[in-house]
Amino acid sequence: MRTHKQTTLKGPATLSGIGVHSGNPAEITIRPAPANHGIAFLRTGTTHGNDRLIKAHHALVSATELCTVLGDVETGAVATVEHLMSALYGLGVDNALIEIDGPEMPILDGSALPFVQAIDQIGIATCDTPRRWLKILRHVRIEAGTSFAELRPIDRGFRLDVEIDFESPVIGRSRKAMDLSPATYRREIAGARTFGMMRDVERYWKAGFALGASLENTVAVGETAVVNPEGLRFQDEFVRHKILDAIGDLALAGLPIQGAYRSYCGGHRMNVGVLSALFADRANYAVVEAQGSRRETVLSELGVGLGIAAFAGDL
C-alpha cells in the first residue's frame, strides 16, 4: 500500500515541447498544491484572454478520439492529458496544479518517462492530511461490440489487466496484468511510447490529428515492421502503452482507485466510459480514508457517493 498521507511536489517542474496532434509548441509547469486540491489544469493563452481552471475529472472530458481532452474547446480546453495524468497517478502524486499555455500538452518522447524524470528530480512531498481512496464495491462493465472495460472489487491496491488485439501482424494480440505501484510504474510502464499505423497517417492529417507526430515521439508501425530505427523499448511496448493510457484516464476518477480494472480492445473512450458507469450508481463505490500509523494503516469508510460530492464545489 502507498503512503497513507496525501502528497504533492516539493517544487515546480517545467517542460516544453510540441503537441502530437496540433504540432504547436507548448510549455507546462507542474506546481505543488495543498491537500485535498487534487489535480487541476490552469489553462492560459486562450483566445478570449481569460485563464481557465479545469479540474482533472471525468465529468469534464469533452473528447476521447485519439487522446483525452478536458474542458470546452470554445472557452479553453487541454488535450492529450493522459500521459501526465498517468505519471502523477503512477508515482502517487495526489495534488498538483499544471499551468499550460496552449490547448494541448507537449508529447515529449511519446511516453510518460519525461514527466516521471521531472517529478523525480523535484521530489515528492508528504502532506499532513490522510489520503482517500475510491473503493470499488460492485462489478461495473461497459461493452462496445467485442470491446469491454470493467472495474471489480479487490481487497487492496489497484490491479490492471489490459488486452489488445490488432489486425497488424506487427502488433497482434497481447495482454499484460500488473499490480500498480510507483516502482512497477517506473520500471514497466512509464517508458512505453504512443504508436500509430503508417497507413493511417494521411487520414489522421486530413482530420487534423497527428500533425506533430514524428519518429521522435511515436512508434510508427509499418506493414511488416516498426519503422523507428531504434526499434521497441519493450517487446510488448504496445500493450504497455495502453496500460499507461488507462492509468491516466482512470486517474480522472479524482481519487486513487482500490479495485481491479480489465479491458479488451479498449481505449480512451472505454476508459472514461467505465468511470461514468461507476459513478452512475452510488452503490458502486465508497470513499475510504487511511487512518493510523504508517505501519498500522487501516482504511476507514467515509461513505458511499462522496467521490462525486467532493468535487461539487470545484466544478
TrEMBL record:
One GO BP annotation here? lipid A biosynthetic process
- Active-site positions on this chain: 268 (proton donor)
Q: Does the keyword Metal-binding apply?
A: yes
Q: Which cofactor does it need?
A: Zn(2+)
One GO MF annotation is: UDP-3-O-acyl-N-acetylglucosamine deacetylase activity
Q: What class of enzyme is it?
A: hydrolase
Q: Sorted alphabetically, which keywords does the UniProt record give?
A: Hydrolase, Lipid A biosynthesis, Lipid biosynthesis, Lipid metabolism, Metal-binding, Zinc
| Enzyme Commission number | 3.5.1.108
Pathway, per record = Glycolipid biosynthesis; lipid IV(A) biosynthesis; lipid IV(A) from (3R)-3-hydroxytetradecanoyl-[acyl-carrier-protein] and UDP-N-acetyl-alpha-D-glucosamine: step 2/6
* GO CC list: membrane
Please give the function described in this protein's UniProt entry: Catalyzes the hydrolysis of UDP-3-O-myristoyl-N-acetylglucosamine to form UDP-3-O-myristoylglucosamine and acetate, the committed step in lipid A biosynthesis.
Under the heading NCBIfam families, the entry gives: lpxC
Q: Mind telling me what this protein is named?
A: UDP-3-O-acyl-N-acetylglucosamine deacetylase
Organism of origin: Methylobacterium radiotolerans (strain ATCC 27329 / DSM 1819 / JCM 2831 / NBRC 15690 / NCIMB 10815 / 0-1)
Give the gene that encodes this protein. lpxC
